[in-house]
Every structure is written in C-alpha cells, then in structure tokens.
Specification:
4% of the residues lie in helices and 42% in strands. InterPro entries: C1-like_sf (IPR046349), CNH_dom (IPR001180), MRCK/ROCK_PH (IPR057529), PH-like_dom_sf (IPR011993), PH_domain (IPR001849), PKC_DAG/PE (IPR002219), Rho-assoc_Ser/Thr_Kinase (IPR050839).
Length: 580
C-alpha cells in the first residue's frame, strides 16, 4: 500500500503499543486513530459504511495503529476509540436500504471471457454494494486476488433490471451440466424496448446459484419499496448503423441543430439531415480529425488532411453553399483546437495546439474569413487537453494544468499549486491529463487518468475528497453538471457538484465524437452511431429514424448535385456512392 505524505488532521496522533510481561498480554490503552491516505491494490470495503472504496488510487484512509479503513468522508463518523471496540464494529454485510449504502453480499463467480462464452469462463469477485453488482476479474489460481479496476457494473436501479435462472430456451451457449449452476442478470442498454443485455453468471454450485438469485431478487424488491427510483441522466438511442457507409470511419462529429449533425471521416466532412435522411458533402477536404463549431463567429473550424492542418469556413457552408476554405498555414501537425470569446464577447478567439505550442488567433468575418495571431504559448510538454474559461486558455498536460490569460501578457496560473503538500503525489506519479471543468468562478475540477481533484483559483485543494474512477478512463466529456467517464467496458456518469456516481452505461468499445459526449461511436462488429439524450433537459432534441429501416437503404447521389445524397431505398437509377 502507498501512504500519503500528509496526515489527515482528524484525530490526535497515537501509536498502538503492545507490552508483554511473562508472556502475558496486557490490555492496550485505548487512544484515538492516526489516519493515512491509502491506495488499496485490491477491492476494499469501508469499515464504517461497508460500501466499497471505489477508485484506482487514494480510495480511502487507514489507521496505522489498528488498521481501521474508511472513506475520507466517513472519517468523522468513525468510532473515535482506537482500536475500535468489538460492540462498535460493523459486520461485513450491512445495508442501509433508505440511503442505498453498504454491502449486502459477495462471493466468487464465473463470467464469460471478453472474447465470449465460447472461449470459456473468467473467474470474478462479485460484490453487491450500494444497489449495484460489481464484478472484478480474477486469475484462476485459488490464492489470486482481484485488482481495483472494476470489470463490469450493473445498477439495480435500472428500470429493466432483473435476475433469473438460465433455461435451455434462453439459447445461451453453455454446457448442459453447467446450466443448473447458471443465472443471468439483465439490464437496459439502448432505448428500444427489446434492446436489453444479459450477463450469464456461473456459480460454483447449485446452492450458491440459488443464494445469488434470492439475494438479488430480495434486494430489488427492497429497492422498489424504498422508492429509490432511476437516477439516470441519459437515454441511449441508436442513430445510424454501418448500413450508412459514412459511419464506418467516422472520427468526429458535432450537433448543428435539432435536425442536423456534422460527421467527419476519412473521406471528408458531411452534414446529415436526420429527419429526411439527406446528406450533403462539404467541400473537398479529406481525413477530418476534429470539428469545432464557432457559433459566436458563425464559423466552423476543422482539423483535416494527412498533415493535420486547421481550416476555417463560414457556418453557411453547412447548408451546401459553395464557399472558400481559409487555411491556417502554420498549424501543420496540430492535434486539437478550441474556441471562445474575449473582451466580454467582442472578439472570437481560436486556440490551436501543436505538440507543446499553442497558437492564439482572433477571427474576423466580413465578406471573407480572416485571422490575426495575437499570442503564441510554449507549454512545458505536449498538450493533452485544451479549453477556454473566462478569457483564459486552460491547458492540460502530463501531471498538470495551467491557465494562460488571453487578453493581456502575464505568467500562467498553476491550477495545482506546487506548495500544496496533499497534491504533490501528482508530480511524483506522472499521469495523463484528460480535461478540466470550471465548476464556478472560484473552483475547478481537474481530471487525470487516475483521479479527479477539486482546486480553487489559487491552485489549492478546495475539497478534501477526490473523484474516483471505477475503471481506467480513456476519455472524459462534460455537459454541465454531468461528467461522462469512458472506460473499456462502460461510460460512468458523475454529478460534479455532488460528486455522486449516478449512472453506468454498459457499452463496450464506445468513443465520444464531440466534447459534450452526446454523439458516440460504438466500435463492435456492427458499428453504430449512438446518441446520448439528456432526459433532464427540455427543448429541441435530435430525432433519428428507426435504424431497423436501414437494411434496404442505400446512399444515393442526387442527379442535380454531386455533393448531395439521400440515404433511402433507391428508386429508378439512383447511383450508389462508392468509397464512403
């Protein structure tokens, strides 16, 4: 275990001592705990609330004297006496059904291997905690222990959740002798009623199978009686599958309005009118890597081509009008772009990152687009993320974030203060930056690949607790106040204000196509474009046609324009576009 260099200032320090005299153990004098922040290497439950301490590092704290371990938020609730008297200790299973907190059951099971059930079973630790079923992969050796990365999570609050035995009519490819020991857990996936997924689980015996089914069923009844309803934010809708050829190589996307989306792929930039399945190709650009809509400047910025150049054109081009493309010559090799306003919205600003450099431009549009570079920034190392907050460009790089003023010259602001001892672990364990979020004018959330940290405008810690990831994240997207954390097997949704983990979307191999995470590509055998619809917002939303209608459709070029296509069942002599 790795311990933090700074103690939590919660109890008077003490060290437990044992005194022996003539081989008789004298009673230890009761004192108070001495807690250290700790990184656990196996799944560990809090001794106070019994919930799992989820996270990759620094999941909780441990008393060095008696070994009492708990969440940072549970320290003040913990018994003050060290060691904890027997009558104050909680059992391994203790569930608060009203709050939905605590561990109800755990044991070893077998789940299908990543390559599928036909390849065999994977040993796993299963823990029923906080009305979720956690599954942790394990090696097959008897003395092996799981690591802290969660393999799968099924939320019992899901409206489609159920648990049942497996029967031959389920058509699950299992051996006949395994069937009596199998059960399945079902939950929703996409919004279509039939689009649910089930995880077959194999117990070590029929009795253990019956126990699992009974426990999960009873807990689900308790959950429904407590009226602890579905807290999910997003409903998933399948927009298009790979019957629309554009989807296969899509790398980036943007929502233009409630009827149109822009898709960038190997072949170029396309606008899809989702209500009538009309498709317009924009210009002759190839290999679109990023699309940035700039509504305040009525422009669109794209990174395109093998050379990764930044190019600009007016928003009116998305209607299919012919227009000139404005190329920023010095941006060759750029990897990301962001936009915003400065001088209280008077000027449109574009920032383009190339390795460890950032070029800052003011954009102008009259008859033609023009630009003026007003600043060039040198970052300590390669830029990994970039955004504009309140006339400052925020830059993420390995183990750090900086804010650079855009309106004037000046030194950058450290978003992680070098003299804050409780934040020094970031520099000691180099970790990639994923994104930063402006919670308010005085608070930020800095998301790294191992942890999320809240800091104030001075770069000092603003909250004692940190944001924990259930599994190693690949991407983070933000749509206030919800953070979407993408990992190999799921997307976890977290409310950044309350720090609550409120939804798990069980999609494997899914990648975001825009910064808010509304449009996503699912990279399975059938590639799909998935729309995350926010249930909590009122107003316009994208309305996609039923994908079941796609089977007979083809992408057909209009006779009147080589840039316009329809995705429909062709009539007459429609020309099927090739290579898209």
């Amino acid at each position: 275990m790795i311990t933090d260099s700074a103690h939590l200032p919660v109890h008077t320090p003490t060290i437990k001592r044992k005194e022996y005299h003539n081989r008789i153990l004298f009673p230890t004098q009761h004192k108070t705990h001495r807690f250290f922040l700790t990184s656990f290497i196996v799944p560990t439950k809090c001794h106070q609330c019994t919930s799992l301490m989820v996270g990759l590092i620094r999941q909780g704290c441990t008393c060095e004297a008696c070994g009492f371990s708990c969440h940072i938020t549970c320290v003040e609730k913990a018994p003050k006496t060290c060691p904890v008297p027997f009558h104050q200790k909680k059992g391994a299973f203790c569930l608060d059904s009203q709050k939905g907190m605590g561990t109800a059951y755990e044991g070893h099971v077998w789940i299908p291997k990543k390559a599928g059930m036909k390849k065999g079973w994977q040993r796993a630790l299963a823990v029923v905690c906080d009305f979720k079923l956690f599954l942790y992969d394990m090696d097959e050796e008897e003395d092996s222990k799981p690591n802290v990365v969660v393999s799968q999570v099924i939320d019992m609050r899901d409206g489609a959740f159920s648990v049942s035995s497996v029967w031959p009519s389920d058509f699950i490819p299992a051996r006949r002798k395994e069937m009596p020991r199998m059960f399945k857990v079902t939950a929703s996936q996409l919004s279509a009623p039939s689009n649910r997924y089930s995880i077959p689980i194999l117990a070590d015996s029929e009795n253990e199978k019956s126990e699992w089914v009974s426990v999960l069923s009873e807990l689900h009844k308790i959950l429904r009686k407590s009226h602890s309803g579905d807290r999910s934010v997003y409903v998933l809708k399948e927009a298009y599958d790979n019957n629309l050829p554009l989807i296969k190589t899509t790398q980036t996307a943007a929502i233009i309005d409630h009827k149109r989306i822009a898709l960038g792929n190997e072949e170029g930039l396309f606008v899809v009118h989702v209500t009538i399945d009309e498709i317009i190709r924009i210009g002759y650009m190839k290999k679109i890597h990023q699309i940035e809509l700039i509504p305040h400047g009525q422009m669109v910025a794209v990174i395109s081509g093998r050379s990764h150049h930044e190019q600009l054109f007016p928003m009116s081009a998305l209607d299919g009008r012919k227009t000139d493309i404005h190329k920023l010559a010095e941006t060759k090799g750029c990897q990301t772009v962001t936009s915003g306003t400065v001088c209280q919205g008077a000027h449109t600003c574009l920032c383009v990152a190339r390795k460890s450099q950032i070029f800052c431009y003011k954009l102008f549009q009259s008859k033609k687009i023009s630009h003026r570079k007003f600043k060039e920034l040198q970052i300590p190392t390669n830029v990994q993320w970039m955004g504009i907050f309140s006339a400052q460009v925020c830059v993420g790089f390995q183990s750090g974030f900086l804010r650079y003023p855009l309106r004037r010259e000046g030194i950058p602001y450290r978003m992680l203060h070098s003299h804050e001892p409780t934040l020094s672990f970031i520099a000691h364990q180099p970790v990639d930056a994923l994104c930063a979020i402006e919670i308010s004018s005085i608070e930020y959330l800095l998301c790294f690949k191992s942890i999320g940290i809240y800091t104030d405008s001075r770069g000092l810690r603003s909250r004692p607790a940190e944001l924990m990831w259930p599994a190693t994240p690949s991407y983070c997207c933000y749509n206030a106040p919800y953070l979407s954390v993408y990992s190999e097997n799921a997307v976890d949704i977290i409310d950044v204000n309350s720090m609550e983990w409120i939804q798990t979307i069980p999609l494997k191999k899914v990648q975001p196509l825009n910064s808010e995470g509304f449009l996503n590509i699912l990279l399975l055998e059938t590639i799909r474009l998935i729309y995350f619809k926010n249930k909590k917002t009122n107003g316009d939303e994208l309305v996609f046609p039923e994908t079941s209608d796609n089977q007979q459709k083809q992408m057909v070029r209009h006779h009147s324009s080589k840039h316009r296509y329809s995705f429909r069942v062709p009539r007459g002599k429609g020309i099927l576009v090739k290579g898209l």
